[in-house]
Design brief:
- The protein has 352 residues and is mostly helical.
- It is built from 17 helices and no strands.
């Protein structure tokens, strides 16, 4: 009894270490971000007739500008500093391609199939990207959780949009959906690695190695006074600036797309409450929280947690829009929740 109690007490501190708390907090931030993203479909319901690509361009374009301006000098530092510049560019390019590919998938493959393939493939691509680039093996638990959650998301999406289909090429739509899943995973990975670069843990391929950076920092510290050291530290990029850089760079072509392709809809005052909501809440708030989560959660786990998005969207569609979810949709929600629980719980089970 005493030995068991002592062993139990000795194992508890490991569950409450700073790293563990950061990991839980990061996962919570991603979950809240996914919940916020799940409101976008309901929001677009209040601006009927606006093409999907206009929503995407305005959402990421206007929201991206707000994020870039809000980060202030941090945005500029993340762009000009060699340790983060490459990650910011990779994240921005991935974000632009994702926005275009995702809405192309909806147009050509239909809402149900396009959304299912795009969002459902992103955690798979994220795991593969980390395996190829970081030599990080995906665990059986991650594979199982991904399969269960993706299966649930497929059921939810199909239950919401049963019978809908696009008028375009199905093959082109599926290809666009897979490209959207890949670029979303690349965006998540680039931001995650950029966050690590801010902390000096990684560098962009082709840049100075950590050892060289450490030696340079040591030499600078020994040769400078404390005031100069403080000034140098304030000139370093930060996580908020990295997100601002990614979205600021991506906003440029997306704003052009919104103005050129959607100027007729931008001139309708009744559409702007929806545009502003999409830009400020799902984009600015949602992606800021997602970036916070990526500081302590891997891209593969973050993209898996983001599968909560279609669940929230389905619930809001029933409560606000008036869609009927039914038993099939409820089963899909249960599967997604089960997959997310499977991802979170086994870590503690191994300590038993």
């Amino acid at each position: 009894m005493t030995g068991a109690a002592g062993a139990s007490r000795s194992s508890r501190p490991a569950e409450h270490t700073p790293d563990a708390r950061r990991s839980v907090g990061g996962a919570a931030a991603v979950v809240v971000a996914a919940a916020v993203w799940g409101t976008t479909g309901t929001a677009t319901h209040f601006a009927p007739g606006v093409p999907a690509f206009v929503f995407g361009a305005v959402t990421f374009g206007l929201g991206g500008l707000v994020l870039a301006i809000g980060a202030g000098r941090g945005t500029v530092r993340a762009i000009v500093r060699p340790e983060t510049r490459g990650w910011a560019l990779l994240g921005a390019v991935s974000l632009v391609v994702y926005a275009v590919a995702f809405y192309a998938a909806l147009a050509d493959a239909g809402v149900a199939l396009g959304t299912t393939v795009a969002i459902g493939s992103s955690p798979v691509f994220a795991g593969l990207v980390e395996w190829v680039t970081d030599r990080r093996r995906v665990t059986p638990r991650w594979v199982t959780a991904t399969l269960v959650s993706v299966a649930g998301m497929v059921v939810v999406t199909l239950a919401r949009a049963e019978g809908s289909a696009g008028d375009g090429s199905l093959a082109l739509g599926l290809g666009s959906a897979l490209l959207a899943g890949l670029t979303y995973a690349l965006y998540s990975w680039a931001v995650s690695r950029g966050m690590q670069a801010v902390s000096g843990l990684v560098t962009f391929p082709g840049g100075p190695g950590p050892a060289a950076a450490s030696a340079a920092a040591s030499a600078s510290a020994s040769a400078s006074a404390s005031a100069a050291t403080s000034a140098s530290a304030s000139a370093q990029p930060n996580g908020r600036g990295l997100v601002g850089a990614v979205f600021g760079i991506a906003a440029v072509p997306l704003v052009v797309l919104a103005v050129v392709g959607g100027h007729d809809h931008l001139g309708v005052p009744a559409h702007w409450p929806v545009f502003l909501y999409l830009a400020l809440v799902p984009t600015v708030l949602g992606h800021s929280l997602y970036a916070v989560g990526l500081r302590s959660v891997s891209a593969s786990v973050a993209t898996l947690l983001s599968l909560l998005e279609p669940v929230v969207a389905a619930v809001l569609a029933v409560l606000v829009v008036g869609e009927h979810l039914g038993l099939v949709g409820g089963t899909g929600i249960a599967l997604v929740v089960a997959g997310l629980a499977l991802l979170a719980l086994p870590g503690r089970a191994r300590r038993r």
